From TrEMBL:
Composition bias type Low complexity, residue spans: 146-159
Subunit organization: Component of the eukaryotic translation initiation factor 3 (eIF-3) complex.
Gene giving rise to this polypeptide: PARPA_01448.1 scaffold 1359
Similarity-based family: Belongs to the eIF-3 subunit D family.
Keyword flag Protein biosynthesis: yes
Protein name stated in the entry: Eukaryotic translation initiation factor 3 subunit D
Listed GO CC annotations: eukaryotic 43S preinitiation complex; eukaryotic 48S preinitiation complex; eukaryotic translation initiation factor 3 complex
Native source species: Parasitella parasitica
Residues covered by region (Disordered): 116-135, 140-167
Region entry RNA gate, spans: 304-318
Cell compartments where the protein resides: Cytoplasm
Function: mRNA cap-binding component of the eukaryotic translation initiation factor 3 (eIF-3) complex, which is involved in protein synthesis of a specialized repertoire of mRNAs and, together with other initiation factors, stimulates binding of mRNA and methionyl-tRNAi to the 40S ribosome. The eIF-3 complex specifically targets and initiates translation of a subset of mRNAs involved in cell proliferation. In the eIF-3 complex, eif3d specifically recognizes and binds the 7-methylguanosine cap of a subset of mRNAs.
Length: 536
């Protein structure tokens, strides 16, 4: 066969259509004329060139994938956009379908292990099996993730929502009413943005003790040996304790007349101000300014100061409902207040240590029924380091309290006594706490870490009150219900003593920030007109 008879193939001539559809020769640069055309859209987003954290073929959780499809671009899929040009139908699109029919999962476990796994997941052939799956947290504690029930059906808690830290943005938001009703005729004198309180700082002032009143009983060290196997029933002890407001305190009234200080308060009010950044529930204080420029920080009788909160900082705090249930917010506050009052009276001996002066609130009829309480009036200097002589000194007198005394070889030290309470580990608002009767002795660190997270505001206030009173110890008791379904009987499961400053450091409580908040409020009040007003 000669060359003339061999078949030949010639490429046809392609003519550019200048007036037709598509890129023209005089429009596309010469170096880009051989690149195929792909459709595109301005809405297309370029993702990562390679995402090694999510390799191809890795199966994702169905709930997460469905959530991305519903929500579109959000915090879960911000780096996983559609491919370039995928918004339009393209002739260049290629779909690869893997043939997975020839693949199978090989389980190399023994038959006995498989049966145990099937019983744990399936509930043993349709039986009603209940159990909890727990996950270890950073503090060494545990939190319940889900619950198996009714024949192995897995029920997700929190409506299939992920759980993060106690201050994260996916908390269930609740609308809470103000602690007081603000009238339409109220006049706003000044405002403080809540998020700016964390930036305030003031050096811890030196304290000077002015006078002491009342008497305290000696702490019974036998309660240090109480544990879950040697529990003690909480007894109801009738005693009288006066918690008079700042303006009605006869000792403070005398100090105001004698012009001993500029600002007056109690440890209840001052500790709430110093721990304001940790509070969740609404509160208010009453500020009164006299004609001679004295400022009185006072509380409202029957308000939030008279009750102990429960799991205020929990991810899902107790329900706030009007129904009279034992695990509602109001019922738990009453229960915690009752426990604290009786626990601080039960752990004492009969021996009494009297202070310099008698109880200023007692009468001849009630002196024999007084509860153990020592009042220590202490003075703090709030004058700024750069203040001039014309500004004058700012002295703060605070009425602090101690609950008991402990005899040591070096003398007598004073103690602040408080109690943490457990109501029902499985109820709403329990904060995923461990059952105390099973875990308090063996996992006390996890229990304490969980309480510090769920009751950050309450524990911080107790630490500040102990520091203001110059107490050597903060005694914490652990009191639980005798029966989780009954709130009338309680048992003491253990006690633990802390040094107040170490306890505050363990909670990451900044004392300089707390005094900075107090200093800012005091300076604001000193600049306002001489008239009574309420500050929320």
């Amino acid at each position: 066969m000669t060359d003339s008879t061999k078949p030949h193939f010639f490429l046809p001539t392609i003519h550019d259509s200048v007036g037709g559809w598509g890129p023209a020769a005089n429009v596309v640069p010469e170096q880009f004329q051989d690149i195929p055309y792909a459709p595109y859209s301005k809405a297309d987003k370029l993702g990562r060139v390679a995402d090694w954290s999510n390799p191809e073929g890795q199966k994702q959780d169905n709930r997460e994938v469905q959530g991305r499809q519903r929500a579109g671009f959000n915090r879960f899929n911000r780096d996983q956009h559609q491919a370039y040009g995928a918004s339009f139908a393209s002739a260049f699109a290629f779909t690869h379908n893997e043939d997975e029919s020839s693949f199978s999962v090989v389980d190399n476990r023994s038959s006995g292990t498989k049966k145990q796994a099937m019983k744990a997941v399936g509930g043993g052939g349709g039986s009603n099996v209940r159990g909890n799956r727990v996950q270890t947290n950073k503090q060494g504690g545990y939190r319940t993730v889900g619950q198996r029930a009714n024949g192995g059906r897995y029920q997700q808690q929190q409506n299939n929502r992920r759980r993060y830290g106690h201050k994260d943005y996916d908390k269930p938001q609740r609308v809470r009413n103000a602690s007081i009703n603000i009238g339409a005729d109220w006049k706003v004198l000044d405002e403080i943005e809540f998020n700016r309180l964390n930036k305030l700082n003031f050096n811890i002032p030196q304290a000077t003790e002015i006078a002491t009143y009342g008497s305290v009983n000696v702490y019974n060290k036998a309660y240090d040996r109480v544990n879950t196997k040697n529990e003690k029933m909480l007894a109801h002890i009738d005693r009288v304790k006066y918690d008079t407001t700042t303006s009605e305190d006869p000792i403070i009234q005398q100090y105001i007349k004698e012009n001993k200080a500029t600002v007056f308060a109690t440890d209840d009010v001052l500790s709430l101000l110093m721990c304001a950044t940790r509070t969740v529930y609404p509160w208010d204080i009453v500020v009164k300014k006299t004609a001679d420029g004295k400022v009185i920080l006072d509380k409202r009788p029957g308000g939030v100061f008279d009750f102990v909160t429960v799991n205020e900082n929990s991810f899902d705090p107790p329900a706030e409902s009007d129904k009279d249930t034992m695990n509602s917010w109001s019922a738990l506050c009453n229960e915690a207040t009752y426990i604290n009052q009786n626990f601080s009276r039960q752990v004492l001996e009969k021996e009494v240590i009297k202070f310099e002066n008698r109880n200023p609130f007692a009468t001849a009829d009630t002196e024999a029924e007084l509860a153990s309480c020592g009042y220590r009036y202490r003075e703090f200097d709030l004058t700024s380091s750069n203040a001039s002589e014309e500004d004058g000194k700012i002295q703060l007198i605070v009425r602090t309290e101690v609950d008991a005394a402990v005899k040591t070889p070096n003398g007598t030290s004073y103690v602040t006594v408080r109690a943490l309470n457990e109501f029902d580990p499985n109820a709403q608002g329990a904060g995923a706490s461990l059952p105390w009767k099973k875990s308090l002795d063996s996992q006390r660190g996890a229990v304490v870490a969980n309480e510090m997270r769920n009751n950050a505001a309450k524990l911080a206030r107790w630490a500040v009150q102990a520091l203001l009173a110059d107490a050597e110890q903060l005694k914490l008791g652990y009191v639980a219900r005798y029966n989780p379904k009954e709130n009338s009987r309680h048992v003491i499961l253990g006690t633990h003593a802390y040094k107040p400053r170490d306890f505050a450091s363990q909670m990451n409580l900044s004392l300089t920030n707390g005094w900075g908040v107090v200093k800012a409020v005091v300076d604001m009040c000193l600049q306002l007109p001489e008239e009574g007003f309420a500050s929320t």
